[in-house]
Amino acid sequence: MQITVSLHGVFRIDRFKLKVLEYPDGSSAQKIIDELQIHAKLLGIILINGTHAKAEDTLHNGDTLMLLPLLEGG
Amino acid sequence: MKFLTTDPVAHPEKILYRRGIVNLEDGSKTFEDVPCSNLEDVLGGFGRSFQILEKRSIQSAYCPENPVIVNTGLLTGSSAMTGLRTYFSSYSPIKGSQAGLPAAMWSAGSGKFGAKLKWTGLDEIIFENRSTTPVYVLIKETSHGPHIELKPAEHLLGLSTHDKIMTLQKQYDDAHFASIGQAGENWQHVAMGSVALSTVNQLKSGEDKMRFAGRGGMGSMMGYKNIVALVAQSCDKNTAITETVKKVHTQVIKGGGAARLQPIKRGGGGGTWAAYDVMQPFNAVPINNYRPQGNDLPEELFRENVEKSYDIQSAACYRCGITCHNYISEKNPNGSRGEFIAKFDYEPLNLLGTNIGIHEAGQAGRLIQLCDNYGMDAISLGVTISYTLAYNEKHPETPLFNGANFGDYDKIYDLICQTGEGKLSHIGFGSMRLSEKTGDTDYAYHVKGLEIAAYLPETNPGYCWAIAGGHMSMGSYGTLIREGIDDVDSWVKVITEDKLHIVGFDMIGLCKFFDITQGIGTQKIVDCLKSDFNLKIKPQDIKDAVRRSFILGLALEFQQGYTKSEYCLPNEVSKNPNPNIKLSNISNHDFMKELSEKVWNVFDDEITSILDRKR
Questions:
Q1: Residue B258 has what pLDDT?
Q2: pLDDT at residue number B206
Q3: Helix (H), strand (E) at residue B518
Q4: d(CA A61, nearest CA chain B) in Å
Q5: What backbone torsions phi and psi does residue B228 show, to the nearest 5 degrees?
Q6: Cβ atoms within 10 A of the Cβ of B336, count?
Q7: Which stretches of chain A sit within 8 Å of chain B by CB?
């Protein structure tokens, strides 16, 4: 299945901003996070098709996965 | 402090703090060891100062009976990382109720002044009445205990916060400083004066790298009392860091809350500035007076764009491993670091940058620097200016002041100078009063008279119950963006249980980045208190004390004439919802009405019990 992966903030460093990537059917957000080697302590927000989601949530063909760093005050 | 017990909950009276009271009218000073009344007294900061303010009946901030209380927290100057906080408390000249009464307020700042003050042997100073002539206050450690002197300060008048500090540094070795700028000196016309606190970096480099107790006009209160600076002179008393505290520090640095703040080269997110990257995908970065337009303009201040033209240096406070802030300097033609401009933190960067239509990093940095040197609160100043610019956009035929528009750098620069010099009191007294004068109150972005932080009110209904500014006294500002929580009952829990605990850091002497997600009712704090003071205490006891202090803050608001109708967001967010924000609408009338009823159902009895105690 094809997943559009959108990265933000420091996750873009040495990776990319936006890419359409191929994953096996039934893949979770966690699988993609692991493959991209995004550190759990920095990961703050997971959005699937613009809705807040959990790492264990399953993705479907054509979904957009957005990964953002933590937001903890200014 | 003196510890005659290991149990601060059962026997707070066996813990005594050292207080100096200075009568500025006649110059007299008294010193006393004060037995703590409760755990809030032991923890310190606003937990103690609000109990003092509670006993005063103050009708106007600028009156001799309104004290300025300068104190520290239990862990200020201890071995605990971030233990640098100084607190300034008073009835505020800028935050006030519609009844016209000033609100009790505190403001916190880091820098090394707090530790130096603690090391003089004093935990608290109360300044009563006012001096007839400008003075600075020398607080020093002697073999006979702490000593306080009032010194003539005419030579410091008219100097910036930074220049006052650098002038005093030439005279006092082994000292740190708290100063006001021209804004605080012009207290009659500027109610948003801040207090600058010197840092090790600043004193070593000679560059204006200060920290600020910015909120609530505590610098204006110092100006009213004719105190232009404080000098704390003492030997450093750094205690050895035990293995227990080392383990705590490791948890702090590697913990989730601090991870984003670490420098990028250490695998972190790059400081508070990184909030831009997280909020922009939701169109939630405030722009042009809190009205995101759904465009990519905020991205011009993303780090990746700024570093093309400017030098960025990660930096830390004294003995802190979090390294949360970034210094921006000019970049020389050969790529080396040039002249220092400013510290980039999210709040001032947004409110003196994107939110006033300034998208060029150097210009935003210069406005932050200007604000810091005049000694004004970047939040109150930025928001009052953004209100002015919004008014001018809506009323091009009859603009305010110099007719500045969003992005008009030169005119905005001029507005800041005029405000800092006391020539523009309509800005100097904040957005609530300015909007009441113009009659356009809907888009004045304050809550209860104090300008809100750089998080859209559409994302944070918790602003209404913040007791001392929306990001230092109610930690709910990221909840919708971070977690997507958009139901009323969850928000009731966020406000009444989870996020009010952020105020604990403004009691104990630590920065909120020590553990922003959990607050101070944790095993980490328990371990630090046991290690440094042999105090035995449970996390729940600390949480209970923090909650009591927060509720006292709400009770003091009612004491000062606030009504429940004033616990509301700026009208524009519900009257004219912004369609560009890509988040659930939790600021509409129905949501806020239900939320308000349920929050007060939780808080009412606790507040009433305090108000009954006072009657």
A1: 75
A2: 97
A3: none
A4: 22
A5: -100, -15
A6: 10
A7: 6, 8-10, 12-13, 39, 41-42, 44-45, 47, 50-52, 66, 68-74
**pLDDT in the model for residue B319:** 87
Residues 440-459 of B with CB under 8 A from A: 453-455
Longest dimension (CA), chain A: 39
Chain B residues near residue A55 by CB distance under 8 angstroms: none
List pLDDT tens digits, range B360-419.
999 999 999 999 999 999 999 999 999 999 999 999 999 999 999 999 999 999 999 999
Conformation bin of residue B294: beta by default, left when phi > 0, alpha when psi is -120 to 50: left
Q: What is the mean pLDDT of residues A34-38?
A: 96
CA distances from B110 to A20, B197, B268, B544, B595 (A): 46, 7, 22, 25, 35
User: What ipTM was reported for this prediction?
Assistant: 0.95
Q: Quick check: pTM over 0.90? A: yes
Q: % helix / strand / coil in chain B, to the nearest 5?
A: 40, 20, 40
Q: Which pairs from A48-51 meet CB under 8 Å and 24+ separation?
A: A50/B582, A51/B484
Tell me if B306 sits within 8 A of B361, measured CB to CB.
Answer: yes
Give me the residues of chain B with pLDDT under 70, please: 256-257
In Å, how far is B516's CA from the nearest CA of chain A?
Answer: 7
pLDDT of residue B239: 85
Please list, in sequence order, all residues whose beta carbon lies within 8 angstroms of the beta carbon of residue B432, skipping any fewer than 6 positions away.
Answer: B96, B444, B446, B449
Taking the alpha carbons at both ends of chain B, their separation in whole angstroms is 32
The verdict on B462 touching A (C-beta cutoff 8 Å) is no
Task: Using a CB–CB cutoff of 8 Å, tell me whether B265 touches chain A.
Answer: no
Q: Phi and psi at residue A19, in whole multiples of 5°?
A: -150, 145
CB of B33 within 8 A of CB of B2? yes
Per-residue DSSP letters for B63-74? Answer: STTS-EEEEEBT
Q: Which amino acid is at B583?
A: L
| Extended beta strands in B372-485, E state | 446-447, 450-451
Token pair of B166 as six digits: 């650098």
- Dist. CA B523–CA B541, nearest whole Å: 12
Q: Kindly list the strands in the beta sheet with B337-344, ordered across the sheet, starting from the edge strand earlier in the chain.
A: B310-315, B325-331, B337-344
DSSP string, B556-607: HHHHTT--GGGS---THHHHS--TT--S----SHHHHHHHHHHHHHHHHHHH
B118-156 pLDDT, tens per residue?
Answer: 999 999 999 999 999 999 999 999 999 999 999 999 999
CB–CB contacts below 8 A, A to B? 90
Strand partners of residue A5: A19, A65
- Partners of residue B516 in chain A, C-beta under 8 Å: 72-73
Q: Residue count of chain A, please give it.
A: 74
Q: How far apart are CA B350 and CA B292, in angstroms?
A: 12
A37 to chain B, closest Cα gap in Å: 12
pLDDT tens digit sequence for B548-587 = 999 999 999 999 999 999 999 999 999 999 999 999 999 9
Is A57 a residue whose pLDDT tops 90?
yes
Which amino acid appears at position B364 of this protein? A
Amino acid at B362: G
Eight-class DSSP state of B75? T
